[in-house]
Specification:
This protein is an alpha+beta fold. The protein has a single domain, classed as Alpha-Beta Plaits, CATH 3.30.70.120. It is built from 3 helices and 6 strands; from the N terminus they run E-H-E-E-H-E-E-E-H. The strands form 2 sheets. The protein has a 4-stranded antiparallel beta sheet, with helices on one face. A two-stranded antiparallel ribbon has the order 5-6. Strand 5 and strand 6 form a beta hairpin. It is globular.
């Protein structure tokens, strides 16, 4: 079975420093996960990341971003197709947001295991969420 990990960065502000809506970011995550093979259409989202870059003129800019990690598993063909679909959607998102470029890192040769979670209580708190527990992504993306 082939596997590739994809790490993409989505800005949280547009080029005029206006906040991109949490609804748009949630939709972007949904569009990205839909590019993966049917058996693993999930993502890990880091809602707040700082990305900095230097312009050709030497000025340093830093932007708030979110990082989305996705894993494609399956046949070589399925994984390659997932990467091509992801690249297309990421370019569309970049164009919608007016970006000159979008960060897309591809890691080949990983091994990912999806293990069932077993929750345990410590001092009255659940320390591990159940896989089907609802978490409000809009709250997290507005951080």
């Amino acid at each position: 079975m082939a596997e590739r990990e994809f790490r993409v960065v989505i800005p949280k502000n547009d080029n005029n420093r206006n906040r991109i809506s949490a609804d748009y970011l949630t939709t972007a995550i949904s569009r990205l996960t839909a590019t993966m093979p049917k058996d693993n259409q999930g993502a890990t989202v880091y809602p707040l990341s700082l990305g900095c870059w230097r312009s050709p003129e030497g000025e340093v800019f830093c932007d708030e971003n979110m990082v989305v990690e996705l894993v494609a598993q399956g046949s070589d063909h399925d994984v390659q197709q997932a990467g091509q679909r992801l690249e297309k959607v990421l370019k569309e998102i970049g164009a919608e947001l007016g970006q000159q470029a979008m960060f897309d890192q591809v890691v080949v040769g990983t091994t990912t295991h999806f293990l069932p979670a077993i929750g345990r209580r410590v001092a009255g708190y659940v320390t591990m969420t159940h896989p089907r527990e609802k978490i409000d992504p809009l709250r997290l993306l507005s951080l």
